[in-house]
Amino acid sequence: MKKLFIALVCLFPLVAYAAGGGHNEHIVKLPASPKDTVSLQNGAKLFVNYCMGCHGMKYMRYERLATDLGIPVDVAQQYLNFTTDKPGDTMENSMVEAESKKWFGNAPPDLSLEARLRSSDWVYSYLIGFYKDESRPYGYNNHVFPSVGMPHVMADMEASMSKEDFHKNMADLTNFLGYAAEPVRLERERIGVYVLLFLFILFWPAYFMKKEYWKDVH
Ligand code: HEC
Predict the structure, then answer these.
(1) Residues 66/79, Cβ–Cβ less than 8 Å
(2) Per-residue pLDDT for 21 more than 60?
(3) pLDDT digits (tens, 9 = 90+) for 177-195
(4) What distances in angstroms separate CA 92 from CA 3, 41, 74, 78, one per listed residue?
(5) Ligand 1 pocket, Cβ-based, cut-off 6 angstroms
């Protein structure tokens, strides 16, 4: 009886997770690597062209983006910045929240931290998850965000290319949002490897010193 009780307590979080609808069959893994600079550059290009009209990135600066993605700052100013913002400015837009609420039902949220809030897999699945639904005001609904207020702004792009190419572009775009949500990620991982390496090397002198100090005690 006691064992059964313990087993039930252990399983409870799983049961709660299942009941909470945490699983959505439309959520798939993001097929892109944060180390792929070309993918990130394509994602940045797509973001400023297709998303920034409505969404800003208040924690991201043009200059930082250019430096991290290996784009010369003047090139970034020309091709990624369509405003009068200086390179050191944050990537905000000027959409008025009250107005956009009227147009879409909800204001477009800032996307700086979106990939951390929802996860990259969620964002990717959302971007490839739009489908035709005439009952919606803009003619589209979404598999992972039912009744979403955002119009399917990539509809023309999706219709103009193969499914593989469209998915590739959405993966690049999501990859870029993942980078923006944590620009130091690659550096953090690189430093982590050095720290582990250092601890591994330090282990040996420490181990032999301990052996030396304790050899007469036994
Ligand atoms: C025409 C304006 C518009 C454009 C352009 C647009 N969005 Fe949106 N987006 C919205 C609105 C409005 C919402 C909020 C929808 C809601 O809450 O019902 C939204 C929501 C989202 C969400 C979900 C936010 C959440 O609640 O977690 C994501 C992710 C997103 N947009 C990504 C993008 C990306 C990526 C692009 C560029 C391809 C883009 N959007 C372009 C208007 C827009």
Answers:
(1) no
(2) no
(3) 999 999 998 889 999 999 9
(4) 56, 19, 19, 17
(5) 50-51, 53-55, 104-106, 108-109, 111, 114, 118, 123, 126-127, 148-151, 153-154, 173
